[in-house]
């Protein structure tokens, strides 16, 4: 663990909030935010009395107490306010440095204040591109999907406006040429390093084969109004998902896909099974596209991930598992993956805005980072004790999971990597010198 805690990580998946002024709202931290949904009970790990949050307060804010009395917790909030004032627009990167993260892949509709620097990279959402028709029947399936499709409709309109399109193109060929491809190319120009699908919140992951000839008549008939039946619309979605994936591959953008559990009391867990993606992952025409299975099928499907990573263009990350599971539980899944393809595993926190000022993205980031590192230590130590690997191999694997695999996948090298290292070194000096200044004592 001493060695593992020294490694500066690359976070493959997070939803960091931007810095906002008084009265301003950050509506871009997720295309499908969970906060407006019907509340569901929190699991034990995510409840406010998780001892890891107390440890986070002590490490991040110099908290001096072993309780959570309101008077003492106010010290945490005050320490955060002082830190924000002291570090200004560098505050998000300052926090990452305190946690031990060099660079974070930020899943956001758009980046914002405090997130445009050497420590953040953009991963935009592109689900809206594969649902171009009237989504009213799909929105009626559950209360959650009613909200989610309203968000997707707004985002697609935003993409069309950015592409200079005022109304849906009449044909599928025009839609892909004038909306889909320009959107992806614009995202690449604006700094995106990957794209993201949250599509498991909207439909199941079983994307069947579909040709342009199959999909074009469906699009043309309903582009300007009316809703196709479910089977027809799925054929169009199947085609567009593969089209977007192929274009992402052409542009060198890995495709991130949500797998496993999701928020909301109406989420269809069976539809988020990563094994449903096998027709896509086995599609020879998509072998130039890299797919990253986010959350590694968390909750129900983690064993399948080890096998799926056999495919040359498939990776997986730990995000979500890091805040839903204990280190011991996560270590079991992680060890299984390490015994398959350690070079395909990516560290991730899935940090996002929290539910209170005292437990917000900073504490969630600390807790998820701590859980991942402890789980990695448990898994590698077990493999070493059982004679599967040497100590040197264990340290190499730890570095690979925490940063090396991401460096290779996203080509974080050359001038960009040097700038990140220099920024990290400057930040580390500031973090060390500034830690005592924000103590609530």
Order of strands across the main sheet = 4-5-6-7-8
Which residues sit in consecutive blocks of at least 5 with pLDDT less than 50? 415-420, 430-441
Radius of gyration: 22 Å
What is the terminal separation in angstroms? 29 Å
| SSE series | HEHHHEEHHHEHHEHEHEHHEHHH
Outline: globular
How many H/I helices? 16
User: Helix amount, in percent?
Assistant: 40-55%
Number of strands: 8
User: Strand portion, in percent?
Assistant: 5-15%
What structural class do you assign from the helix and strand content?
Answer: alpha/beta
Main sheet attributes: strand count, strand direction, barrel closure:
5 strands, parallel
What is the typical, i.e. mean, pLDDT? Answer: 93
Give structural notes:
- The protein is an alpha/beta fold and 441 residues long.
- It contains 16 helices and 8 strands.
- Helix 7 (172-189) crosses helix 9 (230-250) and helix 13 packs across helix 14.
- The protein is globular and about 65 Å long.
- The model is unreliable at 415-420 and 430-441 (pLDDT under 50).
Task: Tell me the layout of helices and strands.
Layout: H1 2-6, E1 9-14, H2 51-61, H3 70-87, H4 91-99, E2 101-107, E3 120-123, H5 136-139, H6 143-162, H7 172-189, E4 195-197, H8 212-222, H9 230-250, E5 255-258, H10 278-281, E6 291-294, H11 302-308, E7 314-317, H12 321-324, H13 327-338, E8 345-346, H14 361-385, H15 391-410, H16 414-435
Parallel strand pairs: 1-2, 2-3, 4-5, 5-6, 6-7, 7-8
């Amino acid at each position: 663990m001493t060695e593992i805690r020294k490694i500066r990580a690359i976070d493959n998946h997070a939803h960091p909030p931007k810095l906002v002024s008084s009265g301003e709202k950050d509506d871009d931290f997720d295309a499908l935010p969970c906060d407006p949904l019907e509340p569901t009970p929190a699991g034990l790990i995510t409840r406010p009395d998780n001892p890891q949050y107390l440890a986070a307060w002590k490490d991040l804010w110099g908290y001096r107490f072993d309780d959570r009395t309101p008077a003492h917790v106010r010290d945490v909030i005050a320490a955060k306010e002082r830190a924000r004032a002291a570090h200004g627009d560098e505050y998000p990167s300052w926090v990452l440095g305190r946690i031990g993260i060099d660079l974070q892949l930020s899943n956001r509709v758009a980046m914002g204040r405090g997130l445009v620097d050497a420590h953040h990279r953009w991963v935009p959402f592109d689900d809206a591109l594969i649902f171009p028709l009237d989504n009213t029947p799909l929105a009626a399936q559950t209360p959650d999907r009613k909200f989610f499709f309203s968000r997707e409709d707004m985002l697609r309109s935003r993409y069309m406006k950015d592409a200079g399109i005022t109304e849906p193109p009449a044909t599928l060929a025009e839609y892909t040429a004038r909306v889909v491809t320009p959107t992806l190319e614009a995202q690449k120009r604006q700094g995106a390093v990957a794209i993201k699908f949250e599509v498991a919140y909207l439909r199941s992951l079983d994307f069947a084969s579909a040709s342009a000839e199959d999909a074009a008549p469906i699009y043309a008939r309903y582009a300007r109004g009316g809703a196709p039946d479910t089977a027809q619309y799925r054929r169009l979605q199947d085609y567009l998902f593969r089209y977007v994936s192929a274009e992402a591959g052409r542009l060198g953008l890995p495709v991130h896909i949500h797998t496993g559990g999701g928020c909301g009391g109406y989420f269809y867990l069976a539809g988020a099974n990563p094994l449903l993606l096998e027709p896509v992952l086995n599609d020879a025409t998509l072998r130039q596209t890299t797919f990253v299975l986010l959350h590694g099928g968390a909750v129900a499907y983690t064993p399948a991930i080890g096998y799926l990573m056999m495919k040359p263009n498939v990776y997986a990350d730990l995000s979500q598992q890091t805040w839903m599971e204990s280190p011991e539980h996560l270590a079991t899944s992680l060890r299984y993956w390490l015994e398959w393809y350690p070079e395909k595993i990516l560290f991730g926190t899935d940090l996002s805005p929290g539910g209170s000022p005292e437990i917000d993205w900073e504490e969630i980031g600390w807790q998820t980072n701590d859980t991942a590192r402890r789980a990695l230590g448990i898994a590698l130590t077990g493999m070493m004790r059982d004679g599967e690997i040497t100590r040197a191999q264990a340290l190499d694997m730890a570095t690979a999971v925490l940063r090396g695999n991401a460096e290779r996948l996203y080509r974080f090298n050359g001038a960009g990597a040097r700038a990140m290292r220099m920024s990290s070194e400057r930040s580390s000096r500031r973090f060390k010198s500034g830690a005592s200044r924000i103590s609530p004592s």
